[in-house]
Design a protein that fits this description.
By secondary structure, the protein is of the alpha/beta class. Helices cover about 40% and strands about 15% of the residues. Helix 8 packs across helix 9. The model has no long low-confidence stretch (mean pLDDT about 95).
C-alpha cells in the first residue's frame, strides 16, 4: 500500500477521466490526498473525497501564488493550466474554516511562501512577500483552531518560512516538494516536520539531503499532474506513479524498496490520521 500524500486530481487536467485515474490508483493500493490551492478547487477536493468511503482524502488551502492581485500578473495560472489572471481568491477565512471541518479533510494546505514568480520592482516584491506572510499566518490559525496538520509550500523562501515557524508552536506538518538545502531540512526536522519528496528528486541533485533525512520523517507524493517521473515522462503524472519515488529513495538510501513503501505509508497515516 502507498499513500500519495500530495495530488491535484481536483485540477482541470483530470476533468475528462478523473474517475478512471482514481480507480487505477485504488486498485493498485494507492490512497490519495487531494490538495487545494484556492477555495474552488479545495471545495472540489472535498467533493471528490466524499464520493469514496476510504482511500481518497482532501486538504484545504490558499496557495501563495494566488496572492499577486494588484501587484503583478502571471500570464498563465500554473495550477489550472489555463490562460487567466492570478487573483487573491477573495480570501474568506470563515469559508475555508467551514470547508475544513469536513470529516474528509485531513490537512490545511497547501499554504506557505513562494518567491519564484517575482514582480519587477523591489517595492512590489516586498509587498508580495508581506501579503503572502499575512495569509500564511491566517491559515496557520485555522490549522491551530481545528487541530489539523499543515501541508507547507515553500519555494525560494526557506529562511522566511523558518523565521515564521520559529515563532509558532504545536504544529504538525510536511514540507511538500522539498527543494531546500540540507541545513534547511535539518531545521524543519528539528521543528518536528516531515519532508515530502516527489518527482523533483529526478530533476535536482538532492541525494545527499535524502540520505540524511531519517526514513521515519519522509512522505512520498506525486504533486500530479506535475513532475512526472522519467519512467513515465511522456504521460501526465498520476497517483499510480508514486511508486517511482519510493524506488528512487530506496536506491539513494540503499535500503529495501518494501521498507520505503511501508514506512512512508505509516508516516502519512500518523501525520494525517488515516
Amino acid at each position: 500500500m502507498f499513500i500519495d500524500s500530495h495530488a491535484h486530481l481536483n485540477f482541470n487536467a483530470y476533468k475528462k477521466d478523473l474517475d478512471k485515474v482514481i480507480k487505477r490508483a485504488l486498485e493498485e493500493g494507492v490512497w490519495i490526498i487531494n490538495v487545494g490551492s484556492k477555495y474552488d478547487n479545495s471545495k472540489k477536493a472535498v467533493e471528490i473525497a466524499k464520493k469514496y468511503e476510504k482511500g481518497v482524502y482532501a486538504a484545504v488551502g490558499l496557495h501563495p501564488i494566488h496572492l499577486s492581485e494588484g501587484i503583478f500578473k502571471l500570464k498563465k495560472d500554473p495550477h489550472e493550466q489555463e490562460e487567466k489572471d492570478t487573483t487573491a481568491d477573495d480570501f474568506d477565512i470563515e469559508k475555508y474554516k467551514e470547508l475544513a471541518k469536513s470529516e474528509k479533510v485531513v490537512a490545511i494546505g497547501e499554504i506557505g511562501l513562494d518567491y519564484y514568480y517575482r514582480p519587477k520592482t523591489k517595492t512590489r516584491m516586498e509587498l508580495l512577500k508581506s501579503r503572502q506572510k499575512e495569509f500564511f499566518i491566517k491559515q496557520l490559525d485555522i490549522a491551530k483552531e481545528l487541530n489539523l496538520p499543515v501541508i507547507f509550500h515553500c519555494r525560494m523562501a526557506h529562511q522566511d518560512m523558518i523565521d515564521i515557524l520559529g515563532f509558532q508552536t504545536s504544529f504538525r506538518g510536511v514540507m511538500h516538494c522539498f527543494t531546500g538545502t540540507l541545513e534547511d531540512a535539518k531545521k524543519y526536522l528539528e521543528m518536528g516536520f516531515y519532508i515530502g519528496l516527489n518527482g523533483i528528486i529526478f530533476k535536482l541533485d538532492l541525494d545527499k539531503t535524502i540520505k540524511e533525512i531519517p526514513l521515519e520523517k519522509i512522505l512520498i507524493e506525486t504533486d500530479c499532474p506535475y513532475l512526472t517521473p522519467p519512467e513515465e515522462e511522456k504521460k501526465r503524472n498520476e497517483p499510480l506513479f508514486v511508486k517511482y519515488i519510493a524506488q528512487k529513495i530506496a536506491k539513494i538510501k540503499n535500503i529495501d524498496y518494501s521498507k520505503v513503501v511501508n514506512d512512508t505509508t505509516d508516516n502519512a497515516r500518523k501525520l494525517f490520521g488515516i
